[in-house]
Write a structure and sequence with these properties.
- The protein has 14 helices and 15 strands.
- It has about 425 residues and is of the alpha/beta class.
- It has 2 domains: about 10-250, 3-Layer(aba) Sandwich (Peroxisomal Thiolase, Chain A, domain 1); about 260-410, Thiolase/Chalcone synthase (Peroxisomal Thiolase, Chain A, domain 1), CATH 3.40.47.10.
- The strands form 3 sheets. A 10-stranded mixed beta sheet has the order 5-4-6-8-1-9-15-14-10-11, with helices on both faces. A 3-stranded mixed beta sheet has the order 2-3-7, covered by helices on one side. Strands 12-13 form a two-stranded antiparallel sheet.
- Helix 11 (about 310-325) links the parallel strand 10 (about 300) and strand 11.
- The longest helix has 17 residues, at about 70-90.
- It is globular, with a radius of gyration of 20 Å.
């Protein structure tokens, strides 16, 4: 039985910033043209590291004081939210400002500000009178979502969803659920990350032997490659405007990008860091069941693969377990070779890279797979160039995170 239009949730606006693009059009073009953007930065205590750096203009939607008193994650969220609302043709007014919810997935928040402020007071003998009086609102867990509401004058609910690197999908899932419950009329949902501004994340990955390095930073992020060395940490954000299909039809929206067909979240329950392919496979199966789909219905699998040996191999094992059968294996791709790992924004940016496939039926390839790891080999893994299919109907988007949190989102072609 088909859902009523009042329970079908669609994407009507997209706003993003990534290291290789500040709009979905630019970002998508660079994925198809195989344009990566990773650069070297100097980081306190760590030195030179590879990073994915965003170059959007925060002054487009904020003044200098707001930028100075707010956070980098807040600026990313504000930029993406405003871009998404404009794209959706949705303006904020008295009639709807209390019916727009903001749900922002994050990996971590507050580390950047805390590290910087401790460093600052160390210059004054650790005298706390020099501690920044904006510290508390900067570091509370709801900050990026809250900064969006202040910037836009929204009075509906807002909060952040802490779900490690599964957070972007989790933000969309939360927005979808709130719309289906009728709690809101519109959701601004997705994920953001400011991770490159904290030395702790880099130091942590380095101590684990999981921080990527290459003489050429553009080749440092290499998921599925036999000679990969680890993760390239990136910043970024991608937020979507979600609403019911009934609402979208009534508004006469310019474009419906896709429909949320199914989703699932679960936990490995086994390890702080190492993934569990059995639980990952279960999460994909749960999402398919909720969508009412079979594995053979999926056209694109957007993988989470980060460029770590164990993580890549375990996910490939899970994907092959679910999708091997008497049907054509879906196309499989990955985005992190282009932009690194954008943590809380990873899943939503990866989805944005594939959503245009509903229009052009082209699937972008992976990046930097020079020597495919045999343990990652699977049918239709695109490692060289884009591929075309007669029709793209369904995308399955994987995002997995530390402490064994898994999220899977299935998005369908509009009107499917």
């Amino acid at each position: 039985m088909c859902k009523k239009d009042s329970l079908r949730i669609v994407i009507t606006g997209v706003g993003l910033t990534a290291p290789n693009g500040d709009s979905m059009q630019e970002y998508r073009r660079n994925l198809l043209d195989k344009v990566a953007k990773i650069e070297n930065i100097d980081l306190r205590y760590v030195g030179k590291v590879h990073a994915g750096v965003c170059h959007f203009n925060p002054l487009k939607y904020q003044n200098k004081k707001d930028i100075r008193t707010g956070t980098r994650a807040g600026s990313v969220a504000i930029y993406c939210s405003n871009e998404a609302l404009t794209d959706a043709g949705l303006s904020v007014g008295d009639a709807n400002k209390g019916r727009i919810g903001v749900y922002v997935g994050i990996t971590e928040h507050g580390n950047v500000e805390t590290e910087n402020e401790i460093h600052n007071i160390s210059q004054f003998g650790y005298d706390v009178k020099y501690w920044n009086h904006y510290h508390n609102p900067r570091t509370v867990a709801n900050n990026p979502a809250g900064e969006v509401t202040v910037n836009l004058g929204l009075t509906g609910p807002h909060y952040c969803i802490g779900a490690a690197c599964a957070a972007g999908n989790a933000g969309i899932i939360q927005g979808t659920q709130q719309l289906m419950l009728g709690e809101i009329d519109y959701a601004i949902a997705g994920g953001v990350s400011e991770s490159i501004h904290t030395f702790g994340i880099f130091a942590g990955f380095k101590s684990q032997g999981a921080l990527a390095y290459d003489e050429d930073p553009l080749k440092a992020s290499r998921p599925f490659d036999r000679n990969r060395t680890g993760i390239v940490v990136s910043e970024g954000g991608c937020l979507y405007v979600l609403e019911t299909l009934e609402s979208a039809k009534k508004r006469g929206v310019r474009k419906i990008y896709g429909e949320i067909k199914g989703y699932a979240m679960n936990s490995d329950g086994t390890n702080f860091v190492l993934p569990n392919p059995e639980r990952q496979a279960e999460c994909m199966e749960l999402a398919l069941k909720k969508a009412g789909l079979e594995p053979g219905d999926i056209d694109i699998i957007s993988t989470h693969a980060t460029g770590t040996k164990a993580g890549d191999i375990q996910e490939c094992e899970a994907v092959k377990k679910v999708f091997s059968g008497n049907w054509d294996f879906p196309f499989v791709n990955n985005t992190k070779g282009y932009i690194g790992h954008a943590m809380g924004a990873a899943g939503t940016l990866e989805l944005a890279g594939n959503i245009p496939s509903f229009d052009d039926n082209i699937v972008h390839p992976c990046m930097n797979v020079f020597n495919l790891d045999k343990e990652c080999a699977m049918p239709n893994l695109l490692v060289d160039s884009p591929s075309r299919k007669e029709r793209i109907n369904f995308i399955l988007n994987n995002s997995f995170g530390m402490l064994g949190i898994n999220s899977v989102l299935i998005v369908g072609r509009p009107g499917n």
